[in-house]
Amino acid sequence: MTVSGPMLLPAELSIVIPCYNEVANVAPMVVALDEALVGQKWEVIFVDDSSPDGTASEVRRLSQLDPRVRILCRVGRRGLSSAVIEGVLSSSAPLVAVMDGDLQHDEAILLEMLTRLQAGAEIVVASRHVEGGDNSGLSGHWRELLSNTGIRAAQAIMPHRLSDPMSGFFAIRRDLFEVLLPHLSGTGFKILLDLVMSAPRSVRIVEVPFVFRPRLAGESKLDIVVLLQFATMLIDKLTRGWLPTRFMAFALVGLIGVGVNVAVLDIAGACGLSFSWSQLAGTAVAILTNFLLNNRFTYHDRTLRGADFWRGLIIFVAVCSLGAVANIGIARMMLDSAGHGHWDRSSAVGAVVGVVWNYAVSSTLVWR
C-alpha cells in the first residue's frame, strides 16, 4: 500500500511493537492497523531483537511502501521491556500505544484507547479481566496459570487498582513516560507493571475491555522464565532499586540451585552414599542447573550460544568448583557441629556460600 497526502502529517499516535521471530505477522499487522485507524495520524515502530527469521527485512520491505512503518533493530540486546523503552524514545507522537506483534491484541481497541487519552487519561490499559474482556486466547492451562499467578502477585503490592497488570497492551502519554523513565527497571517482559508501580497515585489510569485472541503464527513467549523475571522486577520495586535486578535474578537462580542440591543430596543419601559423596553429587547437579538457568534467565540479554555456550560452561564449572570446595567444607563443618540429623540444613548453608562466589566471578568471566 502507498500512502500520501494528509497521512504523512506528524503522527498523533505511535504504536510500538517489540518483536522477535514474528515475520509472518508483520504484514497482517500493518494491514490491520491501517483498517483500524482510518482517518488517524499514526506510525508503527517495530523493535526487533535481531530475529533470525527475517522479521526486520520484512518490516523494511513494508516501510518502502508505507512511510508510517518504521524498524528499530537492536544488536546484542534482548528483552521486551528494554525494547519498549527504546521504541517509545524513538517515537515522534505525543501519545504512544504498546502491543504485541502476534496479532493476539485487538487493534480495533486502539481508537478507544486514543479517545480516552485525549479525554484526560494518562495510562489506558486493555484488560482481559473487566466486563467485556476475555482471556481465552492463552494457549493452554499452564500459560493461563502463569498469567493468573503473576496478576495476583502484582495486585498484592501495587499502589494502583488494576485488574490486568500482566497486560502487554496499553497506551500512555509520552510526557508521562519520560517522567517515569528514570524509575523503570527496564528488565523482563512486563513493562506495564514497571510503569504502574513507578507512577504516583495521582496518575489517572483507566481500563478498557479487550478479547485476547488466539495466536495464528509464531510461538508464544510466555513461559516460566518470564514469570521468574517478573518476580525479580517486583522485588526491584519493593526494594526501590537498592538491590541490582541482575543480582536478585542470580540469587533467585541460586535458591533454585539450593533446592536441587538438597534434593539430589537426599536421593543420593537414600541410595547409600556417604554425606561427602552425596554432597558432591548435589553440588555438581546444582552447578549445571544454575548455569542453564542463568544463561536463559539472569543473562537473557547476553545468552551464550554455540561455541560460547560450551566455553562459558567450562569456565562456570571451573569457577563454581572452587566455590564447591568451600561449599562442601562449610557443609561438613556445619554437619559436625549440628549432628548427623541435619544434612539438609548443613547442605543449604554451604550452597549459599557458593552462590555469593559464583555471582562475583560469573558476571566478569562468563557473561561479560
From TrEMBL:
Location of this chain's protein in the cell: Membrane
Task: Name all GtrA/DPMS transmembrane domain ranges.
Answer: 250-367
**CDD domains registered for this protein in UniProt:** DPM1_like
Q: Name one GO cellular component term.
A: membrane
InterPro entries xrefs: DPM1-like (IPR039528), Glyco_trans_2-like (IPR001173), GtrA_DPMS_TM (IPR007267), Nucleotide-diphossugar_trans (IPR029044)
Gene3D superfamilies referenced in this protein's UniProt entry, alphabetically: Spore Coat Polysaccharide Biosynthesis Protein SpsA, Chain A (3.90.550.10)
Transmembrane ranges, per UniProt, are 247-268, 274-293, 313-335
Glycosyltransferase 2-like domain span: 14-180
> Has the keyword Transmembrane helix been applied to this entry?
yes
Q: How does it sit in the membrane?
A: Multi-pass membrane protein
What does the record list as GO biological process?
A: glycolipid biosynthetic process; polysaccharide biosynthetic process
- Residues in a coiled coil are none
Q: Which UniProt keywords apply?
A: Glycosyltransferase, Membrane, Transferase, Transmembrane, Transmembrane helix
Check the record and name the Pfam families matching this protein: Glycos_transf_2, GtrA_DPMS_TM
Transcription regulation is among the record's keywords:
no
Where is this chain primarily localised?
Answer: membrane
Q: Name one GO molecular function term.
A: dolichyl-phosphate beta-D-mannosyltransferase activity
Protein family (similarity comment): Belongs to the glycosyltransferase 2 family.
Name this polypeptide is given: Dolichol monophosphate mannose synthase
Native source organism of the sequence? Gluconobacter kanchanaburiensis NBRC 103587
